[in-house]
Amino acid sequence: MYELPLLTLVIWLPIIGGVAVLASGDRGSDISKWIALAFAILTFAISLGLWSGFDAGSGQMQFVERAAWIPTFNVEYYLGVDGISMPLIILTTFITIFVIIAGWDVITYKPSHYMAAFLIMEGVMVGVFSALDAILFYVFWEAMLIPMFIIIGVWGGPNRVYATIKFFLYTFFGSVFMLVALIYMYFQADSFSLLDFHDLELGMNAQVLIFIAFLLAFAVKVPMFPVHTWLPDAHVEAPTGGSVILAAIMLKIGGYGFLRLSMPITPDASASLDWLMIALSLIAVVYIGFVALVQQDMKKLIAYSSIAHMGFVTLGFFIVFTIIRNPDVAGGAVMGIEGGMVQMISHGFISGALFLCVGVLYDRVHSREIADYGGVINTMPWFGAFVVFFAMANAGLPGTSGFVGEFMVILATFRADFWWAFLAATTLILAAAFTLWMVKRVIFGEVKNEKVAGLQDLNGRETLNLGVLAAAVLALGIWPAPLMEVMHASVENLVVHVSECKLPASEAADCVLAVPASVAGLTGQP
Amino acid sequence: MPFDAANLFPILPEIAILVTASVVLVLDLYLKEQDKDINHTLTLIGLLVAIGLTGAVGGGETRIVFDGNVVRDGLTDLLRGAILVVSLLAFVYSRPWLKDRGLFVGEFYVLGLFAILGMLIMVSANSFLTIYLGLELQALCLYALVAFDRDSKKGAEAAMKYFVLGALGSGMLLYGVSMIYGATGSIEFGPVAQAVAEQGMDNKVLVFGVVFLVIGVGFKFGAVPFHMWVPDIYEGAPTPAVLLLGSAPKIAAFALAIRMLVDGLEAIQPDWQGMLLILAVLSMGLGNLVAIAQTNIKRMLAYSTISHVGFIFLGLLAGSAQGYASAMFYAIVYAVMSTGAFGILLILSRKGFDAENLDDLKGLNDRDSWYAAMMALVMFSMAGVPPTVGFMAKLLVLESVVRIDLVWLALVAVAFSIIGAFYYLRVVKVIYFDKPNPDMPVLTTSGGVRFAMSLNGLSLLVLGLFPAALLSWCQSVFV
Fold first, then answer.
1. Residue B236 to residues A276, B104, B158, B178, B223: CA-CA distances in angstroms?
2. What is the spatial distance between Cα B344 and Cα B328, in angstroms, rounded to a whole number?
3. For residues A434 and A263, what is the distance between their CA atoms, to the nearest angstrom?
């Protein structure tokens, strides 16, 4: 059964769907929306085949497809997934359905183009997660910008042009240097395969430069402090669907980049620069947490909260090196990365849901200012319940998915350094403060004005969207084991890989990692 | 030496163009005003025949004819084909514009065809003299085309500038050729290459000759600091003339560079590499930076041309078969992109109105979303964003400079391409995010134009997704 080229299907089916939706046009009927929904659901259904056919016991690439693309340069159409990328692909296909549904009645200007842009976007993002060839990866990586640029610019808010051009240029700036690094490695490895890059022996100087090139690309995407400033702008101006995709998936692509490229290709540079990454992550957690506290705009608040939460992700990834260096506590390395991964998936659900919630309010009142609301629960009780639930999840309440990832990362950080963990743990207070304070001002209290008094509660479509996402958040929070099982073997592989020195023999003295004796200990659960 | 009719076989495409031009020239005298469409049809047929003949005489062994003055090799085949196809598109786009302005006359076609003939001669030249003849034939026709709208003062001024600076460039080139002739005793590329390989850079006359040659090439490409004519001509000339002189001549200029610098002077590649390097960095820098400040889109595209020339030079200066192939790929892709961009401007123009400001593109998506998509493809391709072919072209030239360990140059190039992305994005922004002025009429275009534009725009996407065929063709030329 699995002879079907599943990955190719999941990439190209939505793109074909996008073209079909474009062709169907906007002639007064909903036909284009139904086509879009059908393609989104079909793609999700097919992507579930990846989950069911996945061999969780193996950390190797699965569903591999390999064909020549540009033979003269060894560029291949080379796809494959492991336990790290597969859950992210499912997340992508899952979230896209809600984006399509959320835009159903709200988008009145050229809805077929809107739906098509999201479908094409979906295919391209799946492409990023499944590409194992550097050029293919880069093509998908950059191609992602075009639909997002159009989505924000055409369907966005009043200041959309500024926001979308800033978004495009920031990310473009980040990634072109990665391209040069990839080309450089091609001449070292004589191949563009990412897996060959993983095994490539590189000197320390080259590693550091490549690491910085990657860092520019991925840090912008995540986004990490101090290159995060495009995100609040883009989020605020983007239409609801755009915000959801940005927060739920595009940010994850940055995190994924660290796991797939930075850490395995340049482990020694990662190890020697991990202080920088940890510092930036902690700044994101603490400083951006405070910044979120003072926001007046709901979308901006959630955007800053996203940056803080992504700080957890990068912290979980790069704490690994400190743990590896200290063999006594080696067991925590796997937990750090797994915590980061769980945090990514969970944040995909929670931030997506929160943006949908803001979208619900915005569609009715056309304001995102916190000050324009108050007492929404009186007129929209169901909606209020959902918002409170997602806000709790965002604050990391046990029982929701937000708790699992944060807890694992903090636990792993404790093994590395108490004070780092202490700083990271402040998020439990800060996230609770900024989210719950927003909830208090928007949802609770007296009905503030006539607009709020006239609000209608959720309609069927919105309830469906939020309900399913709430179920996902709850399920992942209560029983994260299936997700962890799927990724465990791959993460173990990764930890073993990054703990081996990749420097050439002449620089072997500089190896800070290379603790082969304890590799066995690294992979065991704490 | 007895004349051998077999000599004519490799130059059949040139002969076809020459015949077409002559027929149009004569026939035009007898055509009534309403029958001028015949000129157009004949021209297109002539170009199609020439494309067919290019295929028919192409392939196989390299043939050198006419006492070593003309060559037909893989390079000739590919570049001939590219020039003819791009020019064909240009004529299709130009027709409505010419008709609207009462300029739909045979001379446009005659001059255009002779310019194409000049380019074809450059492509198949095997001696400095032939290449110079081709260059001048092309240039003289283009000067006239720039002044084609004789009531336009701007056009006349542009033509004058073009003529003076073009003549200066040609003069430099000829001066260089004469010195190389003095140093090597030959004007054929083969013997020159041999002599240069023996002498190296010890011969000061040869050194001077190379410097002047590179300056001439710089002029013809419009590379900084020899770029002064480009923006003014692009702005002042009627758009169909810009279309003709901004697309295919870049391919011909590439042939000029390859024939002279590689076929003739490859032995001293390290020496002209340094010169091209300076030209490339300056072109990419100035072109991209100044383009940001432009509101006239023709002028903006002129500066964009300059920056793209910088990229083409990156491939050339790599000095490897790989590099030349990537530069050729870039030149061809650039010609296709630039044809598309100016084609859209022609589509947007109408009687009494020329689309030349950024604002004229406002809300194109609301007026015609298909053309908007095509223009967006062209712009993203020029910016080098995947999955368009512009990215592949940039990737290949970057690869060729990284291959010779000039990683810093690749970094400079990508840094400037980020700056470049900004002004291309601005065009996309105007098309998609701005609302059209209410007084803009509905776009009406003929099916032919729509078909040609679709072909033009989609080819950028298709070549971006499947670059292997064109790329390996480019590479096979330089093996």
1. 54, 19, 5, 34, 19
2. 25
3. 33
CB contact, 8 Å: A520 with chain B? no
d(CA A512, CA B310): 43
d(CA B72, CA B7): 11
Residue A131 β-bridge partners: A79
Find the largest Cα–Cα distance for chain B.
70
**Closest residue, chain A, to B399 (C-alpha):** A183
Angle between helices B248-257 and B74-100 (to 10 degrees): 150
Q: Which of B385, B414, B422 lies at the smallest CB-CB distance from A180?
A: B414
Q: How many CB atoms lie within 10 A of CB A108?
A: 9
Which amino acid does the sequence have at B234?
Answer: Y
Considering only CB atoms, B387 lies closest to which of A143, A168, A176, namely A143
- d(CA A270, CA A208) in angstroms, rounded, equals 8
Residue A352, C-beta contacts closer than 8 angstroms, at least 6 positions apart: A95, A98, A244, A247, A248, A469
CB contact residues (below 8 A), chain A span 173-202, against chain B: 173, 176-177, 179-180, 183-184, 186-187
d(CA B244, CA B109): 11
Tell the burial category of A321 from Cβ atoms under 10 Å away from its Cβ (0-12, 13-18, 19+).
buried
Q: Closest residue of A to B465, CA-based?
A: A69
Q: Are the beta carbons of B472 and A72 separated by less than 8 Å?
A: yes
Query: Between A72, A142, A184, which is nearest B407 by CB?
Result: A184
Put simply, whether A390 touches B (Cβ < 8 Å) is no
Yes or no: say if B284 and B310 are a contact pair by the CB < 8 Å rule: yes
Say if the Cβ atoms of A145 and B385 lie within 8 Å.
yes
Q: Is the Cβ of A67 closer than 8 Å to some Cβ of chain B?
A: no
Angle CA A23–A29–A34, to nearest 5: 70
Classify B102 as helix, strand or coil.
coil
Query: How far apart, in whole angstroms, are the C-alpha atoms of residue A141 and residue A475?
Result: 31
Task: Name the helix (H) or strand (E) containing B72.
Answer: strand B70-72
Q: Do B395 and A183 touch (CB under 8 A)?
A: yes
Other beta carbons less than 10 A from residue B36's beta carbon: 18
Helical H segments across A366-417, by residue range? 376-379, 381-394, 401-416
CA–CA dist A97, A95 (Å, integer) = 5
Print pLDDT tens along chain A (526 aa): 456 788 888 899 899 988 888 888 777 668 888 888 899 999 999 888 888 888 888 878 888 888 888 888 888 888 888 888 888 999 999 989 888 888 888 877 888 888 889 999 999 999 999 999 999 999 999 898 888 888 888 888 788 888 888 888 888 888 888 988 998 889 888 888 888 888 888 888 888 899 999 999 999 888 888 888 888 888 888 888 888 898 888 889 999 999 999 888 888 888 888 889 999 999 988 898 899 888 888 888 889 988 988 988 998 888 888 888 776 666 678 888 888 899 899 998 999 899 988 888 888 888 888 888 888 888 888 888 898 999 989 888 888 888 888 888 888 888 888 888 888 888 888 888 888 888 888 888 888 788 777 788 888 888 888 899 899 998 988 888 888 888 888 888 888 888 777 777 777 766 766 554 444 455 444 3
Interface check B365 vs A, CB under 8 A: yes
3-class SS of residue A27 = coil
Query: Which residues of chain A neighbour B422 with C-beta distances below 8 Å?
Result: 165, 169
Angle at A513 between CA A509 and CA A519, to 5 degrees: 130
Tokens of A518: 């304890």
Sign of CA dihedral B82, B88, B89, B91: positive
Helix (H) or strand (E) holding B64: strand B63-65
What is the C-alpha separation between A180 and B290, in angstroms, rounded?
25
Contact yes or no for A243/A299 (Cβ under 8 A)? yes
